Amino acid sequence: MTIFNIFLLIPLANFFITLYNLFTAPALSKNKINGNSAKVSILIPARNEERNIENCLRHVTAQSYSNIEIIVLDDFSKDSTLAKSLQMSETDNRIMVVEGEELPRGWTGKNWACMQLAKKASGDYLLFIDADVTLGKEAVESSIFEMNNLKTDMLSVFPKQIMNSIGEKLTVAILNWLMISFLPLKKVYSSKNSFYAAANGQFMMWKRNVYFETGGHESVKDKIVEDIELSRMLKTKGYKIATLLCDDLVTCRMYSSFSESLAGFTKNYFPSSGLSEWKFISILILIVFSYLYPLILMFDSVLFMSIVGVIILNRAIISMISHQSLIMNTILFPFQLLTMLYIGLRSVAAIKYGNVYWKGRNL
After folding, report:
1. How far is Cα 131 from Cα 113, in angstroms, rounded to an integer?
2. For residue 29, what pLDDT is reported?
3. Looking at the chain, which terminus has fewer C-beta neighbours within 10 angstroms, N or C?
4. Closest CA to 110 of 20, 3, 229, 28
5. The 203-207 sheet, strands edge to edge
């Protein structure tokens, strides 16, 4: 056994974390609650979302939970987002459309938009969703049920990711692999350690008082990956959070092409790690090597063949949990790893040299 074989421990460790998640990871499922006494403010920051905003609002207004208000903030869109939002508001008086204020110095665009939305809201719960998210009919009701059941101060959901192009399957699919292979999701809820912090800004439901007590998005106003930072902040301050997997109750098509995915993940990959540049690069290379090494040498020995079997089984379990295609994830896995490495290195360079752009803004 060479020294390189030590790296095979990484796929094995990931497999056991995946097994743990298979049996323990919390998930959002359909549940009913008695009454609609608590008001929910559904808050949607929207910048250049003409492709998504109508679909998003159609599903938000169709919720089984009736005591809701819906606020869309148009963040200086250069397309028809504002016009389409206003048109939708004419069909449902629960929809309020506001135009965003100029971005103050020291804020990122999304954090500023979310803070403005929160100040406009009157609900007991504040639910932030992205405009590319589609809510199933029982999504809001089921989320309130889970918040009450788990007694959490903030609940986040990882939506089922919709991927149609090869470019999306090379990039977006790896998110679930990273999360389920490296993070025991139950610990996000059960452990007080901020190391086990995770959230997804596509769907975050807060108790109103907790949001304003902690400063909400203002507390992370200059952070690019605000969801992870918010989850760390809440855990550090002793608040209870939970991050749930999901099926069709909450879905999202983040990007529609490889170029969109590349731009989106470039701004997120490195900042989300919370690591220094060289530590991030070293760990990224180590992970990619530990998986490609046995794949390349799989016919060399029984050991490598066994590890490849473990990798495939791991990919199968994650595909099942994430409602993704096992065949595509297995075939594309080596290319997903190489794409992840490329995006990771690109992300470090972009952050280092201040070259991070999203929707026409320099972050």
Report:
1. 13
2. 93
3. N
4. 229
5. 95-99, 68-74, 40-46, 125-129, 203-207, 154-157, 241-244
pLDDT, tens digit (0-9, with 9 covering 90-100), for 210-249: 999 999 999 999 999 999 999 999 999 999 999 999 989 9
Of 47, 114, 120, 124, whose CA–CA distance to 85 is shortest? 47
Q: Kind of pairing, strands 40-46 and 68-74? A: parallel
* CA contacts within 13 A on the Cβ side of 318: 28
CB atoms within 10 A of CB 213: 12
Q: What pairing do the DSSP bridges indicate for beta strands 40-46 and 125-129?
A: parallel
> CA-CA distance, 10 to 276, in Å (whole number)?
21
Q: β-strands 203-207, 133-135: how paired?
A: unpaired
Per-residue pLDDT, 352:
86
pLDDT confidence bin for 60, thresholds 50/70/90: very high
> Residue 17 is encoded by which pair of tokens?
């974390």
Q: Is the dihedral of CA 130, 134, 137, 142 positive or negative?
A: negative
